Amino acid sequence: VVLATSYQFPHQGGLSTHVDLLARGLRELGHEVRIRAFNDLPAWQRAGTRGPSWLFNRLGRGWGTTWSSAMRARFVAGLLRREAGWLDALNVEDPMAAVAAQRAGLPYVYTVHGYATGEHVAARRIRAGTPPERWHLELEKKALAGAAHVITVDARLRRHAEQLGAAGRVTVIPNFVDGTWPDRAPAPGEARRRLGLPAGRFVILCPRRLTPKNGVAYAVQAMAAVRDGRVPWPGDEPPLLVVVGHGPQWAELRAAVEGGRLEPYCRLEGGRPHPLMPTYFAAADAVVIPSVH
């Protein structure tokens, strides 16, 4: 089995975690698995994808992202052609990898992890109603049209895929959960000591990539409501929100915490290695997963 993505692997985010857990599960079942990703490309292809993208974005928002997406689809196709004689099944994880599979002449199952074009717009990489948005939407449609079958990680994404032309070929398989993480976690007190978290506070963990659709800004705003007394909090010590993750909203959220004098209530950790997450879970009293649809 080949699992293919046009993005870096591993990286911080749900897609990378999904690929890692899927590969581990398939291997435990006795299958051979190879992961092919952007970082498997030669250095000149990676540079040719990223460098001109920066220049095109200087000329107009969205054109650099369009260049990057087009080059990823083109170059990943070469990776997949080299696997054609080995693989029995191909699972692609993003629209560019799907189009790459088409160019390589390989049948594939496409796992849809999000609203690809909408997320570009939400992250302000492209503007709504512009040629780059229309180009990316057509890329999504092409990726779905060529798939032997489509997997989505929730029912809303299934409706999205069906609206773009995949009706009758979609199965919902929720994201995997690694149930073994408690075996790798320290005791709660030791976890807090390692992370420098206070022993007496109620710790709320928010492990989310910092994008508008993930709604982490609302968790930060909730802490302001606690501080101002708009939300009563039992106990002498206020809660502490610990946000683990990075993304395009990092600067915005940091400014909200610092400008709103929320440092005693919010701690922005930035991105952290995935193997460290059991320690954060062990240290937390509660976990919050905001989401905006």
Question: Can you put this structure into words, describing what you see?
Answer:
It is a single chain. Helix content is 46%, strand content 13%. With 293 residues, it is α/β, with parallel strands linked by helices. It has eleven helices and ten strands. The model has no long low-confidence stretch (mean pLDDT 94). It starts with a strand and ends in a 6-residue tail after the last strand. The chain has helices at 14-28, 43-59, 63-83, 95-104, 116-122, 131-145, 155-166, 188-195, 216-227, 250-259, 277-283; strands at 2-4, 34-36, 90-92, 109-112, 149-152, 170-172, 203-207, 240-244, 266-270, 286-287.
SS summary, helix count = 11
Q: How far apart lie the N and C ends?
A: 33 Å
The fraction of residues in strands falls at 5-15%
Helix amount: 40-55%
| Helix/sheet category | alpha/beta
Mean pLDDT: 94
Judging from the principal axes of the Cα atoms, what is the shape? globular
Major β-sheet profile: 6 strands, parallel
Side by side, the strands of the main sheet go: 2-1-3-4-5-6
Low-confidence stretches: none
Helix-strand sequence: EHEHHEHEHHEHEHEHEHEHE
Question: What is the number of beta strands?
Answer: 10
